[in-house]
Amino acid sequence: MKSRLILTVAASALLFALPVAAPVRAQTAPAAASTAIVAPPLGFAHRVLPNGLQVYTSRDASTSNVTVQVWYRVGSKDDPAGRSGFAHLFEHLMFKSTENLPTETFDRLTEDVGGFNNASTWDDFTNYYEVVPANHLERLIFAEADRMGSLVVDADVFASERDVVKEEYRQSYQANPYSRFFGLFVPQTVYESHPYRRPGIGSIEELNAATIDDVRRFHATYYRPDNAVLIVAGNFDQAQLDGWIDRYFGGLTNPATALPANAVVEAEPAGPREATFYGANVPLPVALLAWRTAPYGDADRAALTVLDGVLSTGESSRLYRSLVYDKQIAAQASSSPDFAQQAGHLTAYAVMAEGETVDTGLAALRAEVARFRDEPVTDAELAEAKNELIADVLRSREGVDDRANALGFALMWDGDAAAADGEVAAIQAVTAADVQRVARRYLTEQRMITMRYLPADEAHPPTEQNRDVDAPVHIADLAPAGEPAVLLPEDQRAAIPAAGPESDLSTPAIADFRLANGLRVLVAPTAGVPLVSARLSFDAGARDDAGKPGLAQMTAGLLTQGTTTRAAPEIAAEIEGLGANVGAGAGVDFTNVFANAPANVFPQTLALMADVVRNPTFAQEELDRLRDQTLDGLRVQLSQPGPAASQTVGRVIYGDAPYGAPGGGTTTSLPTITREDVARFHAEAFNPGEATLVFSGAVTVEQARALAEQAFGDWRDRPSADSMDAAAAGPALAPRVVVIDQPGAGQAAVVVAVRGVSRTDADYFPLALGNTLLGGGYSSRLNQEVRIKRGLSYGASSNLGVRVDEGVFTASAQTRNDAVPAVAELILSEIDRMGTEAISEAELGPRRAVMLGGFGRSLETVDGLGGVVANLALYDLPMSELAAYAGKVRNVTPEQIEAAFARHLPGSEASLVIVGDAAQFIEALRAKYPNVEVVPLSELNLNSATLR
Question: Most exposed of 40, 269, 344, 422 (fewest Cβ within 10 Å)?
């Protein structure tokens, strides 16, 4: 992806979020719910151009946007031998120059008009996609055709993007100990002969081996009309669109060279296998079982998907209930069914809790999987899994780009557009007997692969990636490169089509009323997918932890862990049976409880949400369990440079003030939190008179009023003291330069931080727009300097970080350890420029579009709209701000931005926080900053402003 994480089976294998912030995922055994949830058909028209290009289009007049997507049937399985990672590297290069488009033009055509673009490399295909205002559609059709037909790759761009991919490799697989296991070691072990065993990212060595001629031949071979699918969805005129497609794509031709054969068939497993791997900075070991199963188009996929739902989806799933909740031997337990075009596999894994062994985890995993073979799943489990899977289909189709994605995946993996519309029916048709049958067919002891992932030590050094892997495609199989394309002189280039008439950003009307108990209710009805979202917000957060960091998040996490009428497992089962999402989280200033469900079961979902808010029991055993899970999560987070830096910034900027403490707690603060602390926080913070309830989605104002009255009308305030610290940010502190030393870190995190402003500050909009210019998006100044020009990072960005009191502005990047001084200097220099150099209107105009486009897209999903409305209410801003937003952004001048940065965010007040292997950069850094503080990660104390 251009963001640019490769989407393989491991992409979501271990996003180890703290448990207190995670929603309980959805499904009671309501038969009515399972039959009433309906996913509308995708409704695409299809035609084929004479050159073989497949075209799918779907008009939706309810949106002001359009998505253009081109899917190529070439992925990492097609990487030539000795060139692993090649398809992904090539994906990066596709965003550069063509004969008619100078480098980075795709960003000018998308980001600069309020849209976005991206791409992702999968095992079987690569997809490129954009979302833009509908009046820019012709421009994108022109641009996509141009890069299909005339990609330009020169030596400088090739070297720079290869360096960027190396930084992506370091960030994804060297800095993250668990990505190494799931992304590198698991696939190379599951598959013995298929090219799926090679990671999509490749290796540093094989990336270095790639040449420009290889790139050109790869493009000539695979990037051709008869190997591609064009998907367009959104607001357009069909006849006009057809004309544009014929005009720009119709003249493209295919090479004479046939596509290389690549259809390796894995032999059936000869017997069970085992493998053990070791990794640096692995805080908790992993036990994993894997089985090869079936490809995406196989009839058994639906049954395997439902089996996976029963096994690991939600807190009522078998793995969570057994390994995490009951036995408490795992910090996290889950499974992942990976269905690709030519093969598939299923993994079940456990990240072991502190002090637990991998062998204990393996025995527990085997026992849970054996249950599927030995006995049918229950009717309740089957209904829960189906309802959740079907509800997730709804959630995955809210936007036009979501619906286009659903079609693209079906075409690439199954080859049949009808497979996307048949998804719901296939899930509904699965029986308990089907689940048991596929378990007995695939998940046997004889087919099982057992893997252990353990911390490296002197006796067991870190396991190296296996690079001695052949592939069915070789460089010699690729088409000749032909005459290299070059960027034409400006007067010879085909002109980019002009944009059509611009449409105004439309914002919904918000109903605003209060119940008799003082609860404020805001309603934002929408048309479209039958989903409803509710968000109940309270004016209390981590700033109110009263010297016990983690208290607010612990309280939020415990809400779904038991009420006076429901035990935690009953709550999880009921949520999951409804196909709903219900959860809670605490930020710095606020706590939010949220619910999202299909409209037909939303009343039951809201009633459950009300119960967890009003009647939590905070049982001691649940507190103990959640605390242990959270501590394990913290150990994982602190093993990675990025999260460790993020948790340190607060202390550096705010010291011992309330804002300084890590919201998720520390390894020493969490054990001190008692049940009495949690109950007191709940009693003081969770009261209707200071709360706001926001409804969004498929709900009318009248329905919302009735639902609010039924769920919360008889709720009354309890006497409580205002625990808000009026000076949450504390006094301003002198800047610091802090290095957290993590020997052996695969990459370093660099964060520049400055004490910022509140959301209600008069300079909010100048600073927000300035931040978009500085570090908001691919085309921002920071990303241009750090990634695009120098290849020093996978990405650099900034965040305004507003709060109720003075917030914290941050700008950050991850880079190789030896490049830390250079990256820090680049970031500081760009921040300083914002307040000392004039900004041109020509540079600022596109960034306005970026900001407005992001805001507009946030209103297009029920959860996004609800979040925007809730934030306005939490900061005591009027609902009229929705309609006024665009005007306020457009009215910001360059002079206002420069003055606001000079006043609030001067580079001279910036602190620097770095986490990495200090031995590789400390001398160079100390030469610039003699007072640099070095704190070993093993001694880091986040309870103190001194960090010791």
Answer: 40
